[in-house]
Amino acid sequence: MASAELQGKYQKLAQEYSKLRAQNQVLKKGVVDEQANSAALKEQLKMKDQSLRKLQQEMDSLTFRNLQLAKRVELLQDELALSEPRGKKNKKSGESSSQLSQEQKTVFDEDLQKKIEENERLHIQFFEADEQHKHVEAELRSRLATLETEAAQHQAVVDGLTRKYMETIEKLQNDKAKLEVKSQTLEKEAKECRLRTEECQLQLKNLHEDLSGRLEESLSIINEKVPFNDTKYSQYNALNVPLHNRRHQLKMRDIAGQALAFVQDLVTALLNFHTYTEQRIQIFPVDSAIDTISPLNQKFSQYLHENASYVRPLEEGMLHLFESITEDTVTVLETTVKLKTFSEHLTSYICFLRKILPYQLKSLEEECESSLCTSALRARNLELSQDMKKMTAVFEKLQTYIALLALPSTEPDGLLRTNYSSVLTNVGAALHGFHDIMKDISKHYSQKATIEHELPTATQKLITTNDCILSSVVALTNGAGKIASFFSNNLDYFIASLSYGPKAASGFISPLSAECMLQYKKKAAAYMKSLRKPLLESVPYEEALANRRILLSSTESREGLAQQVQQSLEKISKLEQEKEHWMLEAQLAKIKLEKENQRIADKLKNTSSGQLVGLAQENAAVSNAAGQDEATAKAVSEPIQSTSLVPDVESREDLIKNHYMARIVELTSQLQLADSKSVHFYAECRALSKRLALAEKSKEALTEEMKLASQNISRLQDELTTTKRSYEDQLSMMSDHLCSMNETLSKQREEIDTLKMSSKGNSKKNKSR
C-alpha cells in the first residue's frame, strides 16, 4: 500500500516536471524571438542613424551653398549699386549696356528666386525628415527599452524556472533515493511479513487442530456429564447471576444521588410556587383582610393549601429509589421496583395539577375582569394561562414516559426492550420542553409583576409576594434546566446500561425471575464471604523445616556448641586485649602528632621571622647599591660636565648603554616566551599523562572484556561441541532404537507368519479330520 502511494506520488512529480519542462521550452523560444526582434530593431536604428547622417551632410552642403549664393547676391547688389550712378552719367551711351544689365539682372533674379525656393523646399524637407527621424527614433528607443525590460523579465523568469527546475530535479532525485531505500525496506518488511504469515498460518493450523480436539473433547464431556444447558432457554438463563460490575453500580448510585439533589431543588421550588400563589390569591385582586374574596378563589386557595401532600411524596419516592441502588444489587430497569412508586407519586401530583388548572384559569380571568386590570396586564394573564396549560401537558407527558419505564419491573410484556432507547430519548425531550415552558412562564410573570408594581393601588404586600413568586419560578426554571442537561449528558449511558439481558438469550426477564436472580446473588455473595474467612496465623512450612533442622543439629551437637562458645569467648578476650593495646598506641600517636604539630608551628614562625630579616637585609643592600649607582652616576656626570671637550667618550657610553638595554629587553622577552612555552608544555604533558592513564585504564578494561569474550567464545564452542555430541548421540540412539524397532517388527512379522502357517496347518488337519 505504501509503495503504491509512493509510486503515485512519484508519477505526479514526473508529470509536473514534464509540464514545467514544456513551459521552459516555450519560454526559451519566446526569449529567442524577442532577442531576434530586438536585434532587427537595432539594425533598423542603425540604418535610420546612417540616413540621418546623410541628410545632415546634405543639409550642411546646402547651407554652405546658400551662404555662397547669398555672398554672390550681395556682390551683385554692390555691383548694381555702383553701376547705377554710372548709368545716370552715361544714359545715352549706356542704353544698350543698361538693357543688357537689365536682362542679366532679371536672369539673376529668376535664378536667385529659384534657388531661394529650392532652398526653402529643402529646408522644409529637412525639417520634416528630422522630425520624422526624431519621432521614429523615440518610438524605436521606447520599443527597445520595453523589449529590453521584457527580455530582462523573461530572462529572470527563465533563471527562476531553471533554478526551480534544478531544485525540483534535486528534490525528485532525493525523493527517488529515499523511495528506493524505502522500497527496499518495504521489500524486506514484506519478506519478513511473508515469513511471519507462514509462521502464523502454521500456528493457526496447529491451534485449529488443538481447538478442534478440545472442542470434541468438551462436547463429549458436556454430552456425557451435563444434564441440561440452562442458557438454552431464556426462563432458565434469566435466573443466572450476572457478573458483578462494581464500577457500574457506583456510577448508577452517583447518578441517582445527583438526580435526588435536583428533584429536591425542584420540589422546594414547586412548594414555594404553590404557597406564594395561594398568598397572592388572598391579596389580589381583592385583599382578604379588607374584603371577602370570591368563592372561586377561596376554593382555589383551599386546593393550593394541600400542595405539600402531593409534592413531598416526589422527594420521598426519589429518596427510596436512591436507597434501593446499592453496591451489591444489579441496577437495571427490571430490578428498579421503586421506580413504580415514584411514578405513582408523580401521577398523584399530576392529578393535583389537573384539579387546580381550571381554578387557576378562572382566577386569571377574574383578574382580567377586574377594573384594575389594564390591557397589557390582560395580555400577560392570557399568556400565563396558556403557559399553565402547557406546563400541565408537559408533566402529563413526562409521567407517561416514566410510567412506561416502570413497566419492566412490574409487567414485562408492557414495554419491549427495543423501545427502551426511544422512551429514554422522549423523557429527555420532555424535560427540555419543561425547561422551555418554565422560561416562558418566568418571562411573562416578570412582565406581569412589573406592570402590577406600576399600578397606583399596588401594596407592598403584593410587591413582596410577586417577588417571591418570581424567585420560585426562576428556581423552577434553573432546576428544570439542570435536570434536562443532566439527563441529556447521561442519556447514552442510560441506553447502554439500563437493560440487563443474559448471554445467548433474547427473551424478557420477568420481575419474578429478576427477584430470584437477586436472591441467588445474595446467597452467592454470602457463600463467597464465608469462604473468605481469615486463616489462623502459622509458621510457614519452609521456615518450620529450617527450624526443625537447626533444633536437631543443636541437640545432637551440644558439646560442639559448648566448645564453639568457649573458643568464641577466648577470641573475644584476645580481641579486647588487642583493643586496649591499640588504644594505647593511638594515644601515643596522638601525643606525637601534637608535638610534631607544635614543632612545625615553631619552625614556621622562625622561618617567617628569618625571611623578614633577609628581606630587610636585601632592601638595605638594594638601597646601598642604588646609592653607589647614584654616586657613580654623579661621578660620571661631573667629569662629563667638566670634560665637555670629549664628545666621543659620551657617545660611546650611550651606544654601550643602548646596546645593553636592548639586549636586556630581548633577553626578558625571550625569558617570558620560554616561561609561557614551559607552562604550555607542562599543561600538555599533564593532559597527556591523564590521557595516558585513561588509555591504560581503558586498555585494561578492554583486555578484561577481551578475556571475557574469549572465555565466552570458548564456552560457547564447548557448548556447541557438547550439543553436537549430544545431538549425535541422540541421533545414534534414535537410529539404534529404530533398528531395534525394525528388528522387533520383523520378528513379530515372522511370528505372525508362523502363526498363520500353523493356523493354516491346523485348519487343514481339522478339515481332513
UniProtKB/TrEMBL annotation:
One GO CC term, this protein: early endosome
Residues forming coiled coils: 3-72, 137-196, 558-592, 685-726
InterPro entries assigned: PPP1R21, PPP1R21_C, PPP1R21_N, PPP1R21_six_helix
Domain Protein phosphatase 1 regulatory subunit 21 N-terminal: 11-112
Main location, first listed in the record: other
Domain of life: Eukaryota
Transmembrane intervals: none
Any one Gene Ontology molecular-function term assigned to this protein's record: RNA binding
Annotated localization: Early endosome
Low complexity bias spans: 95-104
PANTHER family listed in its UniProt record: PROTEIN PHOSPHATASE 1 REGULATORY SUBUNIT 21, SMOOTH MUSCLE MYOSIN HEAVY CHAIN-RELATED
Name under which the protein is recorded: Protein phosphatase 1 regulatory subunit 21
Name of encoding gene: PPP1R21
